Amino acid sequence: MSAVDPYAPHSGDAGYRVESYDLTLGYRVRTNRLEGTAVLAAVAVEGLSVVVLDLVGLRASRVRVNGAPARFTAAAGKVRVTPAASLVAGESFAVEVVYAGAPAPRRSRWGAVGWEELADGALVAGQPIGAPTWFPCNDRPDDRARMTMKITVDEGYAVAATGVTGVSTRTGGRVTTTFTSSVPTATYLAAVHVGRYRTRPLAGTGVGVVPAVSVTAPPALATASDRAFSTVPEMLRVFDGLFGPYPQEACSLVVTADELEIPLEAQGLAVFGMNHLVPAAQRLIAHELAHQWFGNSVGIERWSDIWLNEGFACYAEWLWSEASGGPTADACVRTHYARLAAKPRDLLLVDPGPDDMFDDRVYKRGALALHALRKTLGDAAFFDLLRRWTAEHRHALVNTDDFRAAVRTAGGPEAVEVLSRWLDRTELPPLP
Description:
By secondary structure, this protein is of the alpha+beta class. It has a domain of 125 residues: Neutral Protease Domain 2 (Neutral Protease, domain 2, Orthogonal Bundle). The chain contains eight helices and 23 strands. The strands form six sheets. The chain has an eight-stranded mixed β-sheet with strand order 5-4-8-2-1-12-15-14, with no helix packed on it. A five-stranded mixed β-sheet has the order 17-18-19-21-20, with helices on one face. Strand 6 and strand 7 form a beta hairpin. Helix 6 packs across helix 7 and helix 7 runs antiparallel to helix 8. The longest helix is centred in the C-terminal third of the chain and has 24 residues. The two termini are 38 Å apart.
């Protein structure tokens, strides 16, 4: 693990890494009350006398380390835990935190992020630092861990969450569902969605290379959801050919009864607002599905490399447009190149800075860089590069230098120089 990420310097701790999270959560929609117990199985990276967790807006009431009560203090979004004995580098340990409160988004330079109340439910918008609004964690993109969540809600509500859905039990008017993710998951990609939903399989999925897809939506939006997601089986088939096999354990699509500004991806899951069930939103569906390869499987070590997530997902929109009979990728490139040319040329793609990490120029310039590589390498070598990238780094962490190395292998110094023009300079290069 690297030092604390300079884009989010107040999040996470490099002194330990988490191997797994075991979360037991109870949520009441009517009162927006969350009660939880989190058990973190971790390993000390260095000698530790204090273990620091991120937890925002919720109150920890009890903490144990390796089963023994531990002293702790909580302030400024941190829970500082003092074990009975200091931990040595390489030592495994477990921290259990009991906590509760009214979860709410946290304010950040990127807007309000985290647990969010809906009109009749809740969702999680975790990227980039929203995870601590609902569970204590080591909130950094390079500390991925397995996750188990046992979530209880009032009868009449349903839950969709990160991981494979397990059994549900009903007791005393409440329903408990377990979700398990055995693949390493970044904290910002863990999600919970609660609403008056029903979950159904999506027709045409679970056959051949297309994974089984579930759709969780309000019953009144079932028909609109089926229509909006009818292209998903073919989309996944196309992406399988271009990027390699679908890399996640689950593929869940959630639709809220509320309008959302943008869809949101999570590990093996994406959530859309009711306003996204329109033909114009097809590109957004492609974008969020592509993140299951780029961002959620092949993950970034640091936020400055966000283009490796967003540039690839944006380019997937254009590839799907071409594959589905819409404008070709080349036509999309020329349209967005002209738009980018009209914007300020002061963004360095390899390090856009925290204020601009989600700027649309990161998405579009990253996608244009990939198209420039495609034109340089040719289709066969370019898509072979993408498939090797997703296979060799499946559920692993990468940075931009790793991609440069992959490009050098695929196309030599000339291809690396083409990539560098887009990554390492602020001026807009000519299209090849």
